[in-house]
């Protein structure tokens, strides 16, 4: 791990106390232009853990990229001990095209651990897993909600991992969601390799939200501080509220097609029967009120103004544990 004097990564050697930006080169564009994904490495003179901070597995999840950008721009990634490796945009192909997937149409987060001679997405996954991930003692991976679905700031972990539960509490997002590892996801690959991973979700695609960004940056600072890696020049704020652990949840789906408007804000605790939004038609003849099916927290809202019958419009907790 990072206690080594020399970190050998992507064909480069980075000694303790040194910084380096190493190219994660996988393939060229169809124009033959080379695509280099910068991997930013900061090493303290003092040995310690190696933290891998990633974002942009999906090319449209801009807010996650912004969180990692701020971590680098503010110098939070310069550790007091150990090593911090930042990969702000893993799916740079999707990021260039403002597309969630790779040019081959594949979702990178469904092809891990990848194949050396596989599809373009599979090759990127393979290189990440074989050449960067083995150095990590902990991963913090930043995501956002898909499409117009705005996620409350949350950390996702699996049940039964005491270490992850502790780190999730330290991170201090408003919610910790217990969710299963999806097959062929980055998180599942980390789990199989025995590398703890905190997956942060917040905001929505093609959007940068200051509250989400601040929650992500502050959470990363708290975790680094907890590990004794955060530079003493940074102040660490306490979370405004204690984490709510969501052990079960469900999507509320639209019963009708029409123009959709939420009347509650994200993070709101609602009671069963509360009106949380409405669906109308353009002609003023129809107005359907959406009611909360149970007591719980609204931690995802679909911000699309048009909805179709069956669309997921709210994510509500059904079982919580204030912790």
UniProtKB/TrEMBL annotation:
<keyword id="KW-0862">Zinc</keyword>
<dbReference type="InterPro" id="IPR053138">
    <property type="entry name" value="N-alpha-Ac-DABA_deacetylase"/>
</dbReference>
<keyword id="KW-0378">Hydrolase</keyword>
<feature type="domain" description="Succinylglutamate desuccinylase/Aspartoacylase catalytic">
    <location>
        <begin position="47"/>
        <end position="227"/>
    </location>
</feature>
<dbReference type="Pfam" id="PF24827">
    <property type="entry name" value="AstE_AspA_cat"/>
</dbReference>
<dbReference type="InterPro" id="IPR055438">
    <property type="entry name" value="AstE_AspA_cat"/>
</dbReference>
<keyword id="KW-0479">Metal-binding</keyword>
<protein>
    <submittedName>
        <fullName>Succinylglutamate desuccinylase/aspartoacylase family protein</fullName>
    </submittedName>
</protein>
<dbReference type="InterPro" id="IPR043795">
    <property type="entry name" value="N-alpha-Ac-DABA-like"/>
</dbReference>
């Amino acid at each position: 791990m990072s206690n080594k004097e020399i970190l050998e990564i992507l064909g480069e050697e980075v000694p303790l106390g040194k910084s380096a930006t190493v190219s994660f080169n996988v393939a060229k564009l169809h124009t033959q232009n080379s695509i280099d994904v910068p991997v930013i490495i900061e090493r303290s003179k003092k040995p310690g853990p190696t933290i891998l901070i990633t974002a942009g597995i999906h090319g449209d999840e801009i807010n996650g990229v912004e969180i990692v950008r701020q971590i680098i721009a503010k110098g939070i990634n310069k550790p007091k001990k150990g090593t911090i490796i930042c990969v702000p945009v893993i799916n740079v192909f999707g990021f260039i095209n403002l597309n969630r997937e790779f040019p081959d149409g594949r979702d990178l987060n469904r092809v891990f651990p990848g194949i050396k001679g596989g599809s373009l997405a599979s090759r990127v996954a393979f290189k990440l897993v074989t050449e960067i991930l083995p150095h990590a003692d902990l991963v913090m991976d930043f995501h956002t909600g898909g499409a117009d679905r705005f996620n409350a700031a949350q950390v996702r972990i699996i049940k039964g991992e005491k270490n992850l539960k502790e780190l999730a509490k330290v991170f201090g997002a408003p919610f910790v969601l217990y969710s299963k590892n999806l097959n062929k996801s980055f998180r599942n690959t980390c789990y199989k390799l025995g590398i703890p991973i905190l997956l942060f979700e917040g905001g929505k695609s093609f959007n940068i939200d200051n509250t989400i960004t601040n929650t992500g940056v502050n959470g990363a600072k708290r975790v680094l501080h907890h590990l004794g890696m955060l530079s003493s020049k940074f102040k660490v704020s306490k979370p405004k509220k204690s984490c709510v652990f969501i052990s079960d949840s469900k999507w509320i789906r639209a019963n009708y097609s029409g123009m959709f408007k939420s009347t509650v804000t994200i993070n709101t605790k609602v009671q069963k029967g509360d009106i949380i939004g409405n669906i109308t038609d353009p002609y003023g003849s129809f107005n359907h009120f959406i009611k909360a099916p149970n007591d719980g927290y609204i931690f995802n809202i679909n911000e699309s103004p048009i909805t179709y019958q069956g669309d997921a419009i709210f994510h509500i907790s059904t079982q919580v544990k204030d912790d």
